[in-house]
Each structure stands twice: as C-alpha cells, then as structure tokens.
Design goal:
single chain, mainly alpha, two-stranded parallel ribbon
C-alpha cells in the first residue's frame, strides 16, 4: 500500500500526533526503546495505537495493510521511540552535518547503512539515531524506512555526499 508520510498529509499528521503522544507516554516509549527485535515492537500497545490510527486511512479505500506494511510500520514505531526531538532537515542531510563541518555519521558508516537489507535496518538505524543526538525529521525517517530500497538509497546518497568533505 502507498502511504504518504508528508507532514501535511493525513498519514504524516497521524504519525506526528502519535509521536507527540509517545513523548508524553514515558512508559510506552521506554518499552519500545528496549525492543531489540521487530517482533518485540509488534507486541507493544504503543505500536498498535499507531497501527489502528493508520488503518483508518485504509478502511475508506480498497487497499489494506498487509504483513509487509505492518512490519515496516513496526520498524518506524520502534525507531521513532528513539527520537526525542525533530531535526529541521531530512535524515541524510542531517547525517552529513547540519553545520557543514565534520559529518555526524561517517562516510564509512553511511555507506554500510546504504547496503543494509530491510531485515537488518532496524538495529543499524537505532545506532544512527543515537549518533544524531536522538534528533530526526520524523516524516522523512518514516518515508525512508517504509520505502527502503534503491530509490531511497539513491536519494540519501545524493543528499549526503555533496555535503561531506572527505
């Protein structure tokens, strides 16, 4: 199913509202942060609140969330539990360094991240979010994870490498 996580789109607004609620739900947020595996995230009530809210978008249309969609949304929920503040730039630009100096995520780590298959993305992205001082553009993070593949990798590379001086 196609989901647009843009900040002014319905799914983006649902995601932002859920994330803001998660900031106030310290217990739910802590439980999600302790999840080391995707399966653990899928057992958390906070994830199911997000899933229920997003399902309201699909009930009016012909498309429904399948297992692949649910897994990708679980990764998003688990990662957003690690984000404590919004960043003003898309994720790849933020990794390059918002101030034009040394990258917050090294070129080597960034290249390794781009090689990750979706199945290994969750733990790798948790480490990246920590390197970014727990700041991320939640809409861009959600869209990048949900649509993880060659197109996202290319977009990230084009956003990151021009800003990095090696």
């Amino acid at each position: 199913m196609q989901i647009d996580f843009g900040p002014s789109k319905p799914a983006g607004e649902i995601l932002a509202k859920w994330w803001e609620g998660l900031q106030r739900d310290t217990g739910g947020r802590a439980r999600l942060r302790r999840c080391a595996y995707l399966e653990e995230v899928m057992l958390e009530p906070a994830f199911h609140r997000l899933l229920k809210s997003l399902r309201t978008l699909t009930q009016s249309g012909d498309e429904a969330l399948d297992e692949r969609d649910i897994q990708r949304l679980a990764v998003i929920a688990g990662l957003l539990a690690h984000v404590s503040a919004r960043a003003p730039k898309p994720l790849a630009e933020h990794m390059a360094d918002p101030k034009g100096g040394r990258p917050l995520v090294s070129s080597l780590r960034f290249r390794r991240l781009l090689k990750q298959p979706f199945e290994d993305l969750y733990p790798a992205m948790i480490r990246v979010i920590r390197q970014l001082d727990k700041r991320a553009d939640i809409s861009d993070l959600a869209a990048s994870v949900y649509y993880w593949g060659d197109r996202v990798r290319k977009r990230w590379a084009l956003a990151y490498f021009p800003r990095v001086v090696d």
